[in-house]
Amino acid sequence: MGKEVEALFEDVHVHAELAHVLQQEGRWAEALHHARRVVALAPRGSVLHLWGYAKAATIAADMGRGQLAHRFATVYLALARGASGVEQYTPWVQQAMGIACYQRGRFQEAIAWYRRAVQGFARCGLTEQVAVASSMLAFNLARIGRPQRARACLADRSEFPESRSYLYDSAMTAIHMAEGDHELAVSSGRRALTASGRRSFDFADAAAVALLVSRALRALGARREATAFILSAARFAVRQRWEVLAPLLPNRGQRGGDMAREAAVSRGRGSAHPRDGASLCPGCG
What we know:
Number of domains: 2
Pfam families: TPR_12
Protein name: MalT-like TPR region domain-containing protein
Structural class: mainly alpha
Number of helices: 12
Mean pLDDT: 82
Order of helices and strands: HHHHHHHHHHHH
InterPro entries: TPR-like_helical_dom_sf, TPR_rpt
Largest sheet: none
Low-confidence stretches: 243-285
Region (Disordered): 266-285
């Protein structure tokens, strides 16, 4: 019996490793499959069981499947109440919940979840991830017309991991748009989109920024170039392997041609690595 239990745990850890690695490579469907296997095989209520739900929530958010991400995150948060050893997983789930709410058009809820994620990462001492999450919070605040608050919440560029400073420029693009400064929006948007080394889970962020740049260019009268940025947004979304490309269609809402809100999701994925216990894998988002 002991050997069977040992074999089961080895199998669970294999699935956990695969879920983590495949997510980092942007192979969402495969990653989600292995995260589901962790949930199915790990003892209920164990740290690894909760990790499986956390990982599944972040993967589903990466895929643009807001409802599924919300479902996994809700289960995780319920199981995590009073549990020990999972404290550093929770901010990642809160961040995924924010993305899920935003994808479903629940902007105020998204902002509340992003605030919790920022605070959670700060408690865990994850300074760079605080900055990444702050870019999501600022992006959302700007998109609902609160650019001053967005500026106050956005971390300084120097606090971002060097490889992902483009997320700062992404948030500033949304802020400039909310302030009506189309030229600065185009400038910061171009800077965000030309950054090298963009992570696979940030292609949706790039799609959102490209759509904002397109809006700014249209406002400046550069319609042909604006169309090119819409096509660029589509390419980024396809590379993200989103299951729903409807976010690339124009939104006919009250904000005058604002692009579909599901596309306006700043990224910053990743979650705790299964073999690191309560610690977080460096560079996981």
